[in-house]
Amino acid sequence: MLYSAHLLYLAADAPNPRGRVLVAAGTVFGEILLWSVAITPFPSSGIHDLQIPKTHYRLLGHEGSIFGVNISPKCHGDKYYLASCSDDRTIRIWDISQFDSSPPTADGSEIKRTGFGHELTRGGGCISVGWGHGARIWGVRFLPVTEESLIELLSISEDLTSRFWTFNLEQKGAGSIELKNTATYRLHSGKHIWSYALDFERGLLATGGADGRIGLIHYRDDQESREEAWDMDSVLAQIGDSREEPGEPSHKDKKAHDAFKEYAALDNDCFAATTTRGRVLTYTLSQKRWNLVGQWAELKGWSILASWEDSGLIALGDRNGQVGVLDTVSKREWWWQSMAGESGKVAGVFLGSYYILTTALSPTIFSLHSFKMDRSKSPSVLIDRETLSLHSPARAGETKFLVTSLAVNQETNYLLLGSRAGTLGIYDLSSTVRPLWALSHTLVHPTDAITSILLLKPGILTTSRNGEYSHLSISSPPNICLTKTHSLKPSLVIEGAGQLDNLTLWGFRGKHFMVINQASQHEAHSVECGGAHRAWTYRLNEYFVWTKAGKSHIARTYPRRKLLQSGLHGREVKSIATHGDLIATGAEDTLLHLSTLSPTSGELCLGTVVGTHTTGIHALQFTPSGQYLFSAGGAGELLAWRVRSVNEIVLRGACEGWSDLRVEGFDLLPVGGGGGGEDGVLLAIGYSDSTIRLYYFSPSTGTFNLVMKGTYKACCILHIKFLPSNDGILVAGTDGYLSIYPLSDPCSLTSLPHPLPLPRKSVEKRVHQSSIKALKVVVGANGVCVYTGGDDCAFGVTRVDTKYNVAESWIVPRAHASAVTAVLCVGGHVLTAGVDQQVKLWKVSEGGEGIMVEAQEQQESAVADISAAEMVGGKVVIVGVGVDVWEASARL
Amino acid sequence: MGKSSKDKRDSYYRLAKEQGWRARSAFKLLQLNSQFNLFADVTRVVDLCAAPGSWSQVLSRTLPPTSTIVSLDLQPMTPLPGVTTLQADITHPSTLPLLLQHLGNKPADLVVSDGAPDVTGLHDLDEYIQSQLLLAALNLATCVLKPGGGFVAKIFRGRDVAVVFAQLRCLFNRVTCAKPRSSRGSSIEAFVVCEGYSPPAGFKASLEAPLGLGMKFPEKPNRSDKEEEHLVDGVREIELRELEGGEDGDHDSQEARYIVPFIACGDLSEFDSDATYALPEVDEFGQKWKSKDPVQPPTAPPYKTALEMRRQLGGGGGGGPSTS
Question: How far is CA A710 from the centre of its chain?
Fold first, then answer.
């Protein structure tokens, strides 16, 4: 069975008076056939005059199906190569130059062995095997040959990466030629890169993934600007300062040798560095040039460095408690004692413009130094220097407040300090009390360092080494109160954040320094630097500098990747919930997306991506107020979220989970008594082991209390709904039944010492042959009406009278060609959608004889594996493998 | 997750190990048979895409010992008593004489196929390949089936499944789409059960000129007899006037489509393949229950060597250099 093919036209030449088409074909059984056929390219008759095809090679060796083949252009005079990629995670290069002189291979009419693992290859040797991809490789492609002996390739894979490879034909030595993975890009999420396009002239690669993203990579630029690394000797040689320090004995032990200490970015082209021998250096990237600013004996063995970016100024702390401001351009310097009466080391230097906060080694009092730069002088002069003492925000008995970050809000005159323990202290700098006391001290990131504080309008953003970043709103005095309005954990030890067009986070993941575009959650950069424990500095979008093995490494990080289209989930969407114009979707990629519907394009605009769930998200629901969102899925996980907008979501609580269970359906009911002016929420959850649990969720504490528990049957529960009449819960599962458990007073189920047992069922009605895949409860003229979609292809309508405990059902068999997985009320009609990708509209009416159903309209959706549908702003949003938006009004 | 976790989440996986089936799919054929009585009067049966052989196991345990069971697969298969196993390509013309020879040159009563490709995740592609596999099985079946014979094959109930249904109806008296309870509800798979092989007059079965792949299906016979709906008790059927399977419409631009009746097989008292079950405390011998090893270890995946390479390089993650 053919899986992949590539055709190359060979023009006529002396031995071949006709042009030929050379065909490489990869099969599902792991073999590659190379054959050709003579062809008249532009036959006047309109019929291509095909000759008998000739098979040149059967190339064997791959251990899995061949997903891609590519024939190289003619290179090195008369060479042709074939690249193949496979289920076996390898890329193989074959030399097929001799195809014309190879003995003809049998055309396959004899019985041949099939299957994999042939040891023999008939002609055409595999010259190289490339390893690296972590999953199936879907495509491979040669790049035009630019260097005589070096051949480049591109591959795309299920593992979300696109990779560039090279092999060198002049490689000497025994064995096969090495196929080297030279660059790896990962811009997609979920699973699969399916497509790509290359622009060789501009060096651009575009990739398309199952996540709907289109990524653009400037691959050529990347390869031209590889990292540079400097050892100290080369630096000292360049600045012409390799002499030994005066007064130092000229011994060669390691201590005497200078080494890089700290870095601070100055501007797009320049950063500063200190050394263990007390040197202060600057490096200009465009000129690849180091400059010596100066050398200070007090900075030997101890130097704290910070910079005010784009001002040319740096701040230094020395081992004698002196703090200095240095103009790296004019080389002017100003030094003073950081703390009256303290002569120990300066422990930390934290900057605002122009503020310096210095801390001593045992800090209970901090010093805040302020100054101005008089730019009317040339060079500028530091003037109006003042020093203010602050009490540490930590009171007696609390953990020491070790400052890790600072921000000064010039408008409110607030000083914000972040600590190593994840707390945030706030001072009002306009207060006249001395030393200054903190207005508030709040734990924000339990319990790791706040690495940066970014001023937003309004509020602030904090990042933490615990992997979290948060948006906080700060209420006005006198009662300063911090509210976390948004908080996420993007699996990164976050060291900093910046906001240009989008929020960008940077930090470390494993051995890599990573820059993440948080809005689209794509990896903007990653630099393998060896890990977090080292001196480094990063200039947003420009460069990353770090020390590794004694060398100073510099990597350019200006944007060479971007998303042309941000896409949605990388795997099947399994659930959708809406409130107003806000849309929450949950998918098998374990992500929760918040988005809105663009009124202009009619497409989903992504706001926030939440990656807290560990397995697929199968059910989602907002509270009627829209303040809270609940998400549930595999591992019995059910999480409560406080949602303020499409960009503001905070985890509020997690229900107990069970690793073996799944939640396919749950429902909620606001019941009051939540405290803090917010309603409590009663949740009914159905699990895959047929248990039903009711929990009371308290928004003020974020806790879930089990209030009722029971077992339905032995089958998996798929849906659970509070009846609109508030007098029971409706349960549907894989057995095709609709069942009702009466509840007399659900609002009383708030806090109970022991959970109550589930009452007896009052209604039990089988509607479908098997799973009820979709369910919608509405209040009809004659009581409750339940619309159901079944795995049995049927659409069901069930009328329930809870007063008299009766249910009557009507069924439209063969409503779809497959399982009916979505049911929705649209205007006065009912919409169904199924895995057959059909969207159907039904007119359902009640008459004397019962329910009548008429088919109204039928359309095909582009979404495969449809799982649910919801209404948003009068439009129908259908989710599955992708998202479809339908104009509802036009269809009625 | 531990070994017994899969036993909890997949009761048919656990049962298959305990009852000695090579794969959990054995229960699918058992449940199909209990619904359709597929094996009545069957003495010659062909199992296509048979590896690892659980359907052949069902056939050999259920059919009388005098029956002829021939199993085909591309992959080698561990032999089974009473079953002739052939390693062959079902699409290849040379397979037919080989198969006929092992059937004693007599037509088969039943052809079954549980074959499926390794899914890629691209639904259109996966459904297309599954349909191609089904067509290949059907082509071979038409060459060996006796008139009135049966054909059972796996099908993906995706976008164009109604086209396949319409095609099958051209060759069989009764076509039903069936989903056994042992097949996961979350899976797109189901089975077509085709009964009463009756090719239209003039139809010539051939592997040289197979159905599909550009070949026209024979004209649909005019079968006006009402098909039986499988409704649960106590519900009322609503018959639709329009939308009768969507067979109307533009024949030039659209292939004929037909929705065949659906039936869920297996009793509700049997295990639910989507549910999580508590594990039994004792086994059938009254001993403390222990998770068993699979009857047949899973076949080596094509990326086995790649996994070994990765292990040698150390670290399970990333792999390959990363560039900014």
Answer: 39
Give the model confidence (pLDDT) of A140-155 as tens digits.
Answer: 999 998 777 789 999 9
Which range has highest mean pLDDT (A278-282, A723-727, B220-224)? A278-282
Domain presence at residue A116: yes
Say whether domain B3-313 belongs to CATH 3.40.50.150: yes
Report which secondary-structure segment, H or E, holds B141.
helix B123-144
E-strand spans in A598-680? 604-610, 617-622, 628-633, 638-645, 648-654, 663-670
Tens-place pLDDT, residues A472-516:
999 887 788 899 999 998 889 999 999 877 889 999 999 999 999
Distance of CA A665 to the CA centre of its chain: 26
Query: Alpha-carbon torsion A552, A558, A561, A562, what sign?
Result: positive
Question: For A21-61, how does the pLDDT look when each residue is reduced to its tens digit (9 = 90+)?
Answer: 999 999 888 899 999 988 865 555 555 556 778 889 999 99
Sheet holding A228-230, edge to edge: A228-230, A551-556, A543-548, A536-539
B295: Cβ–Cβ under 8 A, 6 or more apart, which residues?
B16, B17, B20, B21, B22
Report CA-CA distances (Å) from A548 to A260, A262, A700: 10, 12, 48
Identity (one letter) of the amino acid at A190? G
Contact A408, A414 (CB under 8 A): yes
pLDDT at A625: 93
User: CB-based contact (8 Å) between B74 and chain A?
Assistant: yes
Instruction: State residue A359's pLDDT score.
Output: 87
* Chain B residue closest in CA terms to A516: B324
- Report if residue A204 sits inside a domain: yes
Residue B11 has phi, psi (to 5 degrees) of -70, -30
Q: What is the CATH number of the domain that holds A42?
A: 2.130.10.10
**Token pair 């190379």 in the structure block, residue:** A34
Q: Report the complex ipTM.
A: 0.91
* Residue A218 resides in a domain: yes
Annotated catalytic residue B216: no
Tell whether A4 lies on the interface with B, counting CB pairs under 8 A: no
Q: Give the number of C-alpha atoms closer than 13 A to the C-alpha of residue A725, restricted to the C-beta side.
A: 18
Q: What are phi and psi of A141, to 5 degrees?
A: -155, 135
The 8-class DSSP code of residue A331 comes to: -
How far is CA A297 from its chain centroid?
Answer: 47
State which H helix or E strand residue A216 sits in: strand A214-218
Tokens 């396959």 sit on residue: A108
- Residue contact A659–B1, C-beta within 8 A: yes
> Is A46 a member of any domain?
yes
Judge whether A588 is closer than 8 Å to chain B, CB to CB.
no
Question: Phi and psi of A415, rounded to 5°?
Answer: -105, 130
Rg (CA), chain B: 22
Residue A333: CA atoms inside 13 Å, Cβ hemisphere, count?
14
| Domain span at A194 | 2-224
User: Which of A 160-199 lie inside 8 A of B, CB atoms?
Assistant: 161, 163, 181-186, 191-192, 194
Nearest one of A389, A400, A485, A497 to A441, comparing CA atoms: A400
Closest Cα in chain B to A819: B157
Closest by Cβ to B179, choosing from A161, A163, A770: A770
Pairwise CB contact (< 8 Å): A812 & B74 = no
Decide: B70 and B99 in contact? Cβ < 8 Å.
yes
Q: Cβ(B3)–Cβ(B17) under 8 Å?
A: no
* Total domains, chain A: 1
Structure tokens at B174: 């009764």
- Specify whether the CB–CB gap between A131 and A89 falls below 8 A: yes
At residue A215's C-alpha, the angle toward residues A213 and A218, to 5°, is: 175
Token pair recorded at residue A483: 């509210």
User: Does any CB of chain B come closer than 8 Å to the CB of residue A794?
Assistant: yes
Q: What number is the average pLDDT over the span A755-762?
A: 94
Residue A314: closest CA among A280, A284, A347, A291: A280
DSSP symbol at A713: -
Domain boundaries defined on chain B: 3-313
